[in-house]
Amino acid sequence: VHPEDPGADAALLGRLFAGEVGGFTVEKRFRGADGREAWGLVSAGILPDVDDDRPVALLLVQDITARRHGETVLAERALAEMEEAIREKNDFVSFVSHEFRTPLTSITGYAELLALGGLPDSDTVAFAGIIGREAQRLNAMVDDLLLLDRARGGRLQINPVQVDLTALVLEDAERARRVWPERTIACDLCPDLP
Question: Whole-model pTM?
C-alpha cells in the first residue's frame, strides 16, 4: 500500500465490511519493495456464504501502471503543445502589431502634416497618395489575416494568378523612397522576369 493512502484504504474497506457499499472499483497507488510507484485498478466485494461469522472480501487488482504512465505522457505532451501554441500566438501578435504600426505611423505622420496646412499643392497630393497607399496596405494585411484564418479553418480555396514581380518591387521601392527620402534606394532588376 502506498504510505500516503492507508487511511483512505481502511475507510473504504470499513464501509464494505459494514455493508454500506456492496463493492467498489478504484484506481490506487502502490509502492513496491524497491520504492517504485505502481498503479492498480482495485475491484472489491464481499463473498457470499463463505463464513457466517465473519465476512470475507475478494479483492482483484489489475496493474494499470503503463496506462497511467501513458496518460501522464499524453497530459505532458498536451501541456507542451498548449505552451507552444501560446508562444506562437504571442509571437504572431507581436509580428502583426509591428507590421500594422509601420503603415499607421506613415498615415498618422502625413495626416498631421496635411492638418497643419500651408503646404504646396504638390506635397499635399503626394502626402495624400502616401496615406491612401498605406491605408490600402493595412487593408491588404487585414485581408491576409482573414485569409490565414480561413486557411487554418480548412475553408480556403487557392486560385493562383500571375504577378509582375518587377512592378511589385518598384512599387515598394517608391514607397520606401517617400518614407525615407534621405536614403538612396536603387533597384537592379532583371527585365526578363516572368
Answer: 0.42
> Grid coordinates representing 178?
517617400
- How is residue 46 annotated by DSSP? E
The string of pLDDT tens digits covering residues 54-108 is: 777 888 888 888 888 888 778 888 888 888 888 888 888 888 888 889 899 999 9
Beta carbons of 71 and 109 less than 8 angstroms apart:
no
**Sequence-ordered list of residues with C-beta below 8 angstroms from that of 111, at least 6 positions apart, any chain:** 131
193 alpha carbon, distance to own chain's centre:
39
Report how far residue 100's alpha carbon sits from residue 134's, in angstroms, rounded to the nearest whole number: 10
Answer yes or no: are the C-beta atoms of 106 and 179 closer than 8 Å: yes
The sign of the torsion formed by the CA atoms of 147, 150, 151, 152 equals positive
Among residues 7, 11, 45, which one has the least CA distance to residue 25?
A: 45
CA dihedral 65→68→72→77, nearest 10 degrees, is 110
